[in-house]
Structures are given as C-alpha cells and as structure tokens.
Amino acid sequence: MSATTGIGTFTLRPLDPLKDAELLHSWVTHPKAAYWMMQDAKLQDVEREYMRIAAHEHHHAHLGLHEGRPAFLMERYDPRYVELTGLYDPEPGDVGMHFLVAPTDRPIHGFTRAVITAVMDELFADPRTRRVVVEPDVSNKAVHALNEAVGFVPEREIDKPEKRALLSFCTREQFLAARGVAV
Asked: Angle at CA 63, nearest 5°, toward 102 and 118?
C-alpha cells in the first residue's frame, strides 16, 4: 500500500514482531495510548503479543510509515475468529481493524484523520472487503469522531472481556461518501 495525501505519503509493511518490538513498546506504553490497554507492558509482553498475532491465521499487524518513517500501527483481523467472536453476527466481507498513531512532540494538523483514511483505503483495496468493523472503548470520544468522519455508523454497545465497546460498521459506500466520492 502507498497513499499520497496532502500530508505526505503513507505506506504499510508487515510488522516484524522482534525487530519492531522496541518501537511498538514505546508507543503502546505512552500515556496517549491508554485505550490500547498495554500501559504496563514490558518489552517481552509486546514481543509475545505481536508474535502471537504474526502466527495467527486471521490476525495481521502492519507498521505504517509516513514519508518512510514509522508513524502508526494497523491491525487487520477476521471478526469471525478474533476479537468479536460470538458478539455479533458477521457478514461475508467483514474485516476488523485497529489502528494506533505513534505519539509525537510535533503534531501535524489532520494527521490522524489522514492515517485512518489511508488505513481504510488499504482495507477497501481488497475487493472482498464489504465492510470494516471496529469496537473502540465507549469512552474514547476522539476515535468515535474520527470513525464517524470516515463513514462509520455505530450499531450498539457490546461487552468484551476487557472493555465496554461501541460496535460500529463502515461499508465501502459509506467510506466513499464520507470522502466526497460519488458512489
């Protein structure tokens, strides 16, 4: 994936759980990543978690680069087998997604929205993807606003083992409409 925006070029590469663990550890334990729920994780915990994901048939992690530098994390998963198993009735073409933008001392206006847009472009680049599913914490108002900005529609709150989540969906048509592209 490579997407050029007004903010620059975004690319994705498969995450290397060992090579990227130190970088990821600094991101997921940062105070701004509280909703990632790894605040107290040790480096080995991050390595173990991303080794588990790398070995999973239905869960994939990618490191997002901005202008060639690590800037975000994207996870893609099949909600029939990961995260949402038994919590809703998946439809053919459903793809689950998580994303985390790296903490920075020099924020760029519109950066996080550009990241989620690039992530959604990547997910919908696969013609089998009919809808993207997310389940952020109900109290994460900032991500709810971002999700809405790219076309997500909340369906209902659900109870996951680790949190109360807002189950939301975005079809290809909703995403394109949110971007102002004629459907």
From this structure: 80
CA distances, 2 to each of 11, 98, 128, 158 (Å)? 4, 19, 19, 34
CA atoms within 13 A on the CB side of 15: 29
- pTM of the predicted model as reported, rounded to 2 decimal places: 0.92
Q: How far apart are CA 175 and CA 147, in angstroms?
A: 10
**What residues contact residue 27 under an 8 Å CB cut-off, 6+ apart?**
33, 36, 73, 100, 102, 103
Spell out the per-residue pLDDT of the chain, length 183, in tens.
Answer: 656 667 889 999 999 999 999 999 999 999 898 888 898 999 999 999 999 999 999 999 999 999 999 999 999 999 999 999 999 999 999 999 999 999 988 888 999 999 999 999 999 999 999 999 999 999 999 999 999 999 999 999 999 999 999 999 999 999 999 988 776
- 161 exposure class (CB count in 10 Å sphere: 0-12, 13-18, 19+): exposed
**Tally of CA atoms within 13 A in the half-sphere of 67 that contains its CB:** 5
CB 79 within 8 Å of CB 85: yes
Instruction: Give the orientation angle of helix 141-149 with respect to helix 111-124, to 10 degrees.
Output: 60
